[in-house]
Amino acid sequence: MNARSALYQARYGNPDVAVPAAASPVIDHLLAHASVRAYLPDPVSDDTLAAIVAAAQSAASSSNLHAWSVVAVRDAARKARLADYAGDQAHIRQAPLLLVWLADLARLEQVARRVGETSAALDYLEMFEVAVIDAALAAQNAVAAAESLGLGTVYIGAMRNRPEDVAAELQLPPRVVAVFGLCVGMPDPAAPAAVKPRPPQSVVLHQETYSLPAQEAGLETYDQAMAAFYAAQGMKVRGTWSNHSAKRIRDAASLTGRDRLAEALRNLGFPLR
Questions:
Q1: CB atoms near residue 236 (< 10 Å)
Q2: How many secondary structure helices (H) and strands (E) does the chain include?
Q3: Given pLDDT bands bounded at 50, 70 and 90, which one contains residue 263?
Q4: b/e burial code for range 134-155 (CB count within 10 A of at least 16 → b)
């Protein structure tokens, strides 16, 4: 088994997965991604951060609006408070750097004001979506860049659990909201991260038209792959991936506080239409 085959087998949790002939070092790098939740205390330098942010800024931006920002948090006390707001996740405290990615419409509002234009379009859902997508694209570039430098990362979606508290902590102005966090640091070799399997491509790839029935066999295969992953990692997950995912969308209470996100957005200056 060659190294590329091993990457595909780990990514899909399947020893028999087909390995495409098309290949590049970039694809190999992306296939090896794993979420890191244990870090050494080694700091992430300003020089490294500058390179990561340059990579982030190289992502596509809708209409070249750059409707995102990022706050770099290194202060231990501030990280601890943000960890509390995000469900008391220990790796937020442990990581030497937390990047909080923001949907940022305040800058565009300021630009419009500076040139004597109105900015009524900022109140529409479309512009909020633009800002969230811009932030996500930039962050994913940052992840790829950080990992290319030997660093580890993990996204923190729970940064949306208490958006007003996060906004107050980071002194965000109206029309700016945290959409997720990202821990960054040198992975602790004593607690290596595992590559989590992804569904077979038959689940996510559709040719010409979309089909739900065509996904059934792939979903069953994925349940088996994730069951093996849960067991190998000693994770106490009840039932299959399908069971776990269904519970996650059962009702508003399953959203861990994010059920009131619309209200929070209004409080933060996003009167979405």
A1: 6
A2: 12, 4
A3: confident
A4: bbbbbbbbbbbbbbeeebbbbb
Q: Are 130 and 62 in contact (CB under 8 A)?
A: yes
H-helix or E-strand spanning residue 162: none
Q: The whole model's pTM is what?
A: 0.95
The answer to whether the CB of 187 falls within 8 A of the CB of 40 is: yes
* CB 245, CB 199: distance < 8 Å: no
- Stretch 233-241: mean pLDDT, rounded? 85
Sheet holding 176-185, edge to edge: 68-73, 97-104, 176-185, 152-156
Among residues 145, 170, 131, the alpha carbon closest in space to that of 53 is found at 145
Q: Which residue has the higher pLDDT, 19 or 1?
A: 19
SS (H, E, C) 2-29: CHHHHHHHHHHCCCCCCCCCCCCHHHHH
DSSP-derived secondary structure letter, 197: P
Q: What is the CB neighbour count within 10 angstroms for residue 252?
A: 10
Task: Give residue-wise pLDDT tens across range 117-166.
Answer: 999 999 999 999 999 999 999 999 999 999 999 999 999 999 999 999 99
Secondary structure (3-state) at 124: coil
Nearest one of 169, 181, 196 to 33, comparing CA atoms: 196
Q: Quick one: which of 39, 27, 38, 56 has its CA closest to 146?
A: 56
Range 226-235 average pLDDT: 90
Residues 6 or more apart whose Cβ sits within 8 Å of residue 24 = none
Report the C-alpha gap between 213 and 211 in whole angstroms. Answer: 6
**Residue 17 phi/psi, 5° resolution?**
-65, 140
